[in-house]
Amino acid sequence: xxxxxxxxxxxxxxxxxxNKIMDAFDEYVESNEPHWISVTExxxxxxxxxxxxxxxxxxNGSIRFNTCxxxxxxxxxxxxxxxxxxxxxxxxx
Length: 93
Known about the structure:
5-stranded antiparallel β-sheet
């Protein structure tokens, strides 16, 4: 099933709750499987990042940090982005 098909089902079954359901679905997928997100799919929301920074991939394949404010990128126009990973906390024994 594609995301579009899933969205059609959600809107058909629960039109008043569709946005909440899709946000919960996106949060679940993103928290369980780090992956690149195309900027044509969506730009970062506040919950996607800490300190406004995300990793981005530029058209030439380079990877760097960037910030997106209200849908506008501060440093150039990347083709994809992903949230930063959690910081290393070390091993406790």
